[in-house]
Amino acid sequence: MRLSFDIALRFLKSGKGQTLLIILGISVGVAVQMFIGSLIQGLQISLVDTTIGSSSQITISSVNKDKTIKNWERVVYEANLLSPNIKNISVSADGPANIDYEEDIDSVLIRGFNLDDADRIYKFKEGLLEGSLPFKKDETIIGKELSTKSKAKLNDKIVIVTPSGEQIKLKVTGIFDLEVSSLNDTWVVTNLETAQEILSLDSNVTSVEMQVSDVFKADEIAKQLKYTLSIEDTKVDNWKDQNQSLLSGLNGQSVSSYMIQVFVLVAVLLGISSVLAISVVQRSKQLGILKAMGIKDKDASLIFVFQGLMLGLIGAIIGVCFGFALLYVFTKFAVKPDGNPVVPIFINKGFIALSGMFAILSATIASLIPARLSSKLNPIEVIKNG
């Protein structure tokens, strides 16, 4: 085995141009695989974060006549039993109302929360353009579009017309931008007590919202919750069932990424195999002499297996370095006006290591064809024909 390794190393050194060509092919393949994979993973994470990362991923609501959950503390307790699968839980009191502009009336959605809990889901503090959260009774924060329409500024009071026709004045303690126009235009966010009073809910809530540690397992966790809850007249919804088009797009991205990576690997494998097969023909005289001197067919085959292994290892290392360089260049030149990358890059160490291992494995597998050819060489025929 040691002899086979030494001969393989000598063959690689003697054919430097050929060796460099194969290493370049492997390096480019690994770099492309790493770049595309990291780019698509980053795109998916960004897409998931912007669409469902700041919203409820599992929602428990009521199906009874008044659409309220009376024993919501029990629901929260039972949901917490599934921890650590569930990481954030918030109760909500929601309902339609109207805002009186004096010259006009428009419909809005009253959303009341325990704000410390809700902020972990909706990130209201991050979205605040000015002001603070409405922790006190009869305080609210509104979206920037609603602020513009109602001409309400910080510390102004807006008039909310309740479903029963009563008028309640709320002090605006903050203006937010959740980066979704429909939410900025309609949400009137307040504390739970104020919303319950406006909507005449007593101490009840309309939903229990939560986020999970793995967003793609939300449907499985929702099923567990459905069977765990002892409270009747409730339903459990999850983002995957409600966003099939988004889920389909994410799956399509993953499939396309895998297909591209497979084709890159196949191209690398065929390239290495063909070049090493030519190397068998080029080195047939040397191999014939070695066999005539007593080297076994197995050892002759190992020469090319070692070549493939060394080429794959060197190519994978250079390819990973080249891949990082590509990602760095992308983050510097493909940027938004604010200087952030168009697509955030996600560095997955496991994926990068896997890409390198696949390259080494592909190079080794590719060497099996020339290894088999070398084992079939007849030393007498090779030396006789020159």
General description of the model:
Strands 2-3-8-5-7-6 form a six-stranded mixed barrel, surrounded by four helices. With about 375 residues, it is of the alpha+beta class. It has two domains: about 1-50 and about 245-385, no CATH class; about 60-240, no CATH class. It has 16 helices and ten strands.
Write the layout of secondary structure elements.
Elements: H1 2-14, H2 16-51, E1 58-62, H3 72-80, E2 86-100, E3 105-113, H4 115-122, H5 124-127, E4 128-131, E5 139-143, H6 144-150, E6 157-161, E7 167-176, H7 181-186, E8 187-191, H8 192-198, E9 207-212, H9 218-228, E10 234-238, H10 239-242, H11 244-282, H12 284-292, H13 297-333, H14 349-366, H15 368-375, H16 379-385
Helix pairs in contact: 1-13, 2-11, 2-13, 2-14, 11-14, 11-15, 12-16, 13-14, 13-15
Number of helical elements: 16
- What is the N-to-C succession of helices and strands? HHEHEEHHEEHEEHEHEHEHHHHHHH
Number of strands: 10
**Overall average residue pLDDT:** 82
Helicity, as a percent range: 55-70%
What structural category characterises the helix and strand content? alpha+beta
Oligomerization state: single chain
Low-pLDDT parts are: none
Strand order of the largest sheet: 2-3-8-5-7-6
Major sheet, described briefly? 6 strands, mixed, barrel
Instruction: Give me the Rg, rounded.
Output: 32 Å
Tally of individual domains: 2
Shape, please? elongated
Strand content: 15-25%
* Cα end-to-end separation: 27 Å
